[in-house]
Amino acid sequence: MDGTRQRRRGDTRQRIQDVALELFAEQGYEKTSLREIAERLEVTKAALYYHFKTKEEILVSIFEDLSRPIEDLVAWGRAQPPTLETRQEVVRRYSDVLAGAAPLFRFMHDNQATVRELRIGEMFKNRALGLRDILVDPEADLVDQVRCVSALFTLHAGMFALHDLGADPEARRKAVLEVAVDLIAQAHRDG
Amino acid sequence: MDGTRQRRRGDTRQRIQDVALELFAEQGYEKTSLREIAERLEVTKAALYYHFKTKEEILVSIFEDLSRPIEDLVAWGRAQPPTLETRQEVVRRYSDVLAGAAPLFRFMHDNQATVRELRIGEMFKNRALGLRDILVDPEADLVDQVRCVSALFTLHAGMFALHDLGADPEARRKAVLEVAVDLIAQAHRDG
Amino acid sequence: MDGTRQRRRGDTRQRIQDVALELFAEQGYEKTSLREIAERLEVTKAALYYHFKTKEEILVSIFEDLSRPIEDLVAWGRAQPPTLETRQEVVRRYSDVLAGAAPLFRFMHDNQATVRELRIGEMFKNRALGLRDILVDPEADLVDQVRCVSALFTLHAGMFALHDLGADPEARRKAVLEVAVDLIAQAHRDG
Amino acid sequence: MDGTRQRRRGDTRQRIQDVALELFAEQGYEKTSLREIAERLEVTKAALYYHFKTKEEILVSIFEDLSRPIEDLVAWGRAQPPTLETRQEVVRRYSDVLAGAAPLFRFMHDNQATVRELRIGEMFKNRALGLRDILVDPEADLVDQVRCVSALFTLHAGMFALHDLGADPEARRKAVLEVAVDLIAQAHRDG
DNA sequence: TATGAATGAGTATTCATTCAT
DNA sequence: AATGAATGAATACTCATTCAT
């Protein structure tokens, strides 16, 4: 009975994160004001400050919650032997991770200038470097190193910039993943 | 003799563009205020408005000046037969174009959320789609289409996100270009 | 005790309206800045924006609050038979209405060019036309129609432009009203 | 041959006045910027300053040029005996004067708050008082004094606020004039 | 668990005016 | 007779943040 009003008790923090991420992804971090978030939630700005100390903290909390799978992936990858198979599996899993928190990663991708100045900039960079270090063999040829990094960027671009290549999203994701996996394979052909 | 004061006569418009691009690329568009630009130039904000109607127009003018080579490249590409060689040459030339106006393209890459709302968003998108249409064969396999687009993104990423792969910039650029050219080649292997 | 600080709690919105109307009437809408209003109230400009969305909204809110009596008068007038007596009574009541919100109507009278571009321009015009339609018989002789409208303008002018005819304000108002009532009577002499 | 360009030589001052009055009457004094005037004339703002020392001076010069007929009328009126006939003739002539410089008087009527702060405020007030002193007999009944002033305001209102009474402008002007002349007559009935 | 009221610092933009050329 | 380049001061408005209740 009632529902919304009832269910809203206690989950305000979560609802703030949801709405904020939605708006951040849609319009960017700077162009999204706390007033806007508050209005969409039908609470006052001050209510946001009950749950979060600053605007930035809202973003940080979202990032912390949603980016754990990357941490896990990096941890897993580090524990594996640095083989072709491991690397391809990392790429596969990363593709899943991206798809599982698309709005966050779309936001990260579209707001790099902003993100760089924020706390999450450093955090994200570290996770990204973690991934890279798993995929890239520092002894390898520079071209092959680039191939591995390129696999990563292909995944990202595939998520956020291929909306007009037609084809349904799932088919697109598969195609993108195949290219990425293939890039890793090429980097291991010989050397 | 004297220099600064003397030479400044008449080139204020250009100096505004230079400083603005520098700051936009460094801190992002929204976080760069006209006050900051004016101060760095040692003129008043009002002087900026003598030369440009709005903040956005400063950016537009920079974009128009610096993105002409892309237009030219698209035009050239369209006039060639849609062969492997053409496409690889387009990739090569695009790499040069990016290197030739690196600060602008770094800005575009880092501020996509912002750019999308601005007039240059549409402009840039059109140029990008132009390039894509030259590189991508709509009849080809989806995976091969992705390969071609990925070549483009590899170029971009190579410019703006590989600063820590070590190696000197020129070597890096060559490696990136090789990967991109190779991606195009693979997309043409058979099919 | 203390008073000012104490009493100010909760009535800020009203105080903004009061001070704004005072300044608008004194110096005009355009020449009155929000800084001025804020300073006189010893609050910040931002506080004004907590209570009103724009400068224009301050004016609109004042107008809506103070012009209700005209609406009521028009409604009353419409419900009466269109006789000489009705019309004279409307003129009498209008004189009271004007006297009851003199600063607002002085403002409207003195700032017509400005008001015309604002939201209240349309609102006021509608109320004025409502009054006119009650006073003016569209079948009547043009000269008699003008007499009725002139009665209205005489009232206005009497409020705002006769300060130097000497005599005390109340006597002046009575004289003005008599002229206006008489104009209506003449318009009904025969016809 | 050519024409515009040719004829424009030498009459810039006049053209500034024309355009300025047009815009002042249309949008008000404050809302009309020198940029706007300059743009419409296809000259630079600085050119305006070659011909006039300030924005206000543009208005003053217009007023001085166009309000001379009032001065003349006042002078003429003062030289006549203070009879009913004189007064009615003054009203008739004033109606002509208003019609002859309608944009100026429409401006004065619509921008009273602004005008009051400007140099022309005082000038206009003096001319108006001059007229009033001719029309009003200080010995007369207050009501009759009001009638005379009301005749003046009827003329003004007739010019600027009766556009929707229908009827063609000339018919309207005649009707308005008749009411005004009649008001003067009533003020002289007995007394 | 929130709100109402407010602030301080900032933003882009506009304006009348000046002056060397 | 006019322009190009610039300024100083102002304006309406927005934002993240605070705090007493």
TrEMBL record, chains A, B, C, D:
Keyword annotations of the record: DNA-binding
Signal peptide stretch: none
**Is ATP-binding found in the keyword set?**
no
Question: In this protein, which residues make up the domain named HTH tetR-type?
Answer: 10-70
Pfam families for this protein: TetR_N (PF00440)
Q: Which Gene3D superfamilies match?
A: Tetracycline Repressor, domain 2 (1.10.357.10)
Q: Which InterPro entries match?
A: DNA-bd_HTH_TetR-type_CS (IPR023772), Homeodomain-like_sf (IPR009057), HTH-type_Tx_Regulator (IPR050624), HTH_TetR (IPR001647)
Q: Which residues bind DNA?
A: 33-52
According to UniProt, the name of this protein is TetR family transcriptional regulator
> What species is this protein from?
Streptomyces glaucus
